[in-house]
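Quick one: structure for this chain?
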Amino acid sequence: MKKFAGVFAAVSLIAGLGAAPAYAFQEPELVQAEAPEFPRAAQRREIEGHVVVRYNVSADGAVADVEVVEASPAGVFERSVMRALEGWQYATGPGAEGVERRFDFNFGD
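Got it. Here's what it folds into:
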């Protein structure tokens, strides 16, 4: 997977959407992550959108059981997000269930 390049529109990561309050839920430390690539077809057509995913973090720090909770527009950005999450690594430890994260695909201001 290529590293996210500044040429592409910004893809922002927002943690904790719909998650329990910070005192009740603590996401393990994210130690390796690459932003999803902005799909070329969406870039050419100037399509912006977002994807919200929910997943578990295993004790070895791997992302598992990823499910798309919301995608707008549907069918455009999900695959890019899923591919990026395959390379994510959290610190080893007790793991976590039900981590939600939003990925925004926008052309900069």
